[in-house]
Design brief:
Elements: E1 23-25, H1 38-44, E2 53-55, H2 63-68, H3 74-86, H4 92-103, E3 114-118, E4 121-125, H5 136-153, E5 157-162, H6 166-175, E6 181-188, H7 194-201, E7 208-213, H8 217-229, H9 231-237, E8 239-241, H10 247-263, E9 271-276, H11 281-292, E10 296-303, H12 308-315, H13 339-346, H14 351-364, H15 371-378, E11 382-385, H16 388-402, H17 408-419, E12 428-432, H18 440-447, E13 469-470, H19 474-484
Parallel strand pairs: 4-12, 5-6, 5-8, 6-7, 7-13, 9-10, 9-12, 10-11
Antiparallel strand pairs: 1-2, 3-4
Helix pairs in contact: 3-4, 3-10, 4-5, 5-6, 5-10, 6-7, 10-11, 16-17, 16-18
């Protein structure tokens, strides 16, 4: 079947799903745990105890609600899906135009279009936003949400993030030129593509800072978490996170799974997804959609040679290895931060148990094993390792068969989709998470065709760069942020 057309006109929005939720930290050991509203969770990003925020309940996404989304635009679906997660932080009258504006500049009218690659195999293109990567689908909404809440509170925020390639440019694009925000993105020097780097370092906005760190993405992520753990620094700079550790990112990513499933026949027909992931956030958003009631038959994780997730789901062991550079640098990760949210679920929302397990994981490099938790996780996800040679083959095979150019991350999704234990009567959707022109050398080597950047970025390689470099040292990074941020703490006004 062909997917339903998604119009780009603003129709009457469908009603929001279910009731509103509150949020808990995955490491809160108190009984009962503290509950926060959406505004506080959005601005905090990471909980003070180091945990990640999760809803205390899943808004229901039942069959009538799914049917009501048929024929709706992407913005309309987004408004219905995110409203119960936002709750009273924004009125419906404020949320609707904000959501509509977030997606109106995307390059494709459908926002997240589906293409048929073969029998019951689909590609969902998630690269039509300003930075040409799937992170835009969340961050183009999260940036305005930050601004809306901060203006209401009369505060300024310092946004901190780490990127393995795509989050940085998407976050900077979403936060640039916003008076109430300063944004600092740490990226591993020499471990992102030139296009990815230039999308961060050529932005001239005074409030945006991309910093090269001597180390891996995991080192960058550890620096971000260490800044949040430094309470005086966190409070003085009024820190917030922009990585997928911020719940708002996960919330907004749920939308494209719902949109794809509805287009392919949900609720009458289940859908499966193959997701390339290193940090577990993207596929966790699919899991959230499934917990809400979206009929998902299978969730397939595709990893590259940095295969900690594939090793865990296939063997039960989660052990940190050395981060290795690959053709798919956005997935060069060995500490998948968002796995903590699933672990909280597997441990039946026992925050103390999660905190103990993760302390052991960071101390020894191995997550304490639990056969029952592993079996429960295996029932939820499949996982496939796709190395560089297999990635090149996937790019070449797809181009030969369909004429589609895939970037290495998207090629991993397609390879994982084909390798998975699939139900033949269920459509499988592979996520194309980046534009092929972000990785032109890899694509050209596999296909003989060098993909072109869209016209609005055709001069990217000629734009001047700002490229501060810092060692993998918390003090040096904090000194830089202090010297360039404008925030004055939690009561500070812009």
């Amino acid at each position: 079947m062909r997917p339903a057309a998604w119009g780009d006109r603003l129709h009457r929005f469908p009603p929001a799903l279910g009731s509103c939720v509150a949020y808990l930290s995955t490491r809160d050991a108190r009984t009962p745990p503290a509950r926060l509203g959406f505004e506080d969770v959005l601005l905090a990003g990471l909980a003070p105890d180091g945990g990640l925020y999760v809803p205390d309940a899943w808004p229901p996404l039942d069959a009538p609600a799914l049917r009501a989304l048929r024929g709706r635009s992407y913005a309309e679906i987004a408004c219905a899906v995110v409203a119960p997660f936002i709750g009273e932080a924004l009125s419906a009258a404020s949320l609707r135009p904000l959501v509509a504006a977030a997606y109106q500049t995307f390059d494709h009218a459908a926002v997240a279009p589906l293409k048929e690659l073969g029998p019951e195999l689909w590609l969902m293109e998630l690269f039509h936003g300003p930075s040409l990567a799937f992170k835009d689908y969340a961050l183009q909404l999260v940036g305005p949400l930050f601004e809306q809440v901060l203006k209401k509170r009369g505060q300024r925020l310092t946004v901190i993030g780490a990127t393995s390639g795509d989050t940085g440019s998407a976050a900077i694009e979403a936060c640039r030129e916003r008076d109430c925000l300063d944004i600092f993105i740490l990226y591993p020097e020499g471990r992102v593509s030139e296009v990815q780097r230039r999308q961060m370092t050529t932005v001239a906005a005074a409030n945006a800072h991309a910093i090269a760190i001597s180390g891996s993405f995991d080192d960058c992520q550890d620096l971000v978490k260490a800044m949040f753990a430094d309470t005086p620094f966190r409070q003085a700079l009024n820190l917030s996170a922009v990585n997928s550790i911020n719940w708002a990112r996960i919330m907004a990513q749920v939308v494209y799974y719902v949109a794809a499933a509805v287009a392919l026949g949900a609720p009458e027909r289940p859908v499966s997804f193959a997701v390339p992931t290193g940090n577990f956030g993207n596929v966790y958003a699919a899991h959230v959609a499934r917990r809400m009631g979206l009929p998902i038959a299978e969730l397939v994780i595709g990893t590259n040679r940095n295969d900690i997730l594939a090793r865990h789901f296939n063997t039960g062991a989660m052990t940190i290895s050395r981060v290795e550079a690959s053709l798919s640098p956005s997935m060069d990760i060995q500490v998948p931060s968002n796995f903590e949210r699933l672990l909280y679920e597997l441990k039946e929302r026992d925050g103390a148990a999660v905190a103990r397990a993760l302390a052991e994981f960071r101390r020894t490099g191995s997550l304490p094993a639990s056969a029952s938790e592993w079996r429960a996780a295996q029932a939820l996800f499949q996982a496939c390792r796709v190395d560089d040679a297999e990635t090149r083959q996937s790019i070449a095979d797809t181009f030969r068969a369909t004429g589609e150019l895939l970037d290495p991350h998207s090629a991993i999704a397609v390879a994982a989709a084909k390798a998975a234990r699939r139900r033949g009567d269920v459509p499988m959707v592979a996520l194309a998470c980046a534009h092929p022109a972000k990785f032109p050398e890899a694509v050209a080597a596999a296909t003989g065709r060098r993909p072109e950047l869209p016209g609005r970025l055709c001069d990217l390689m000629q734009r001047p760069e700002r490229r501060p470099r810092l060692p993998n040292d918390l003090g040096a990074v904090e000194d830089y942020v202090r010297a360039h941020a404008r925030a004055t703490g939690k009561g500070g006004a812009p």
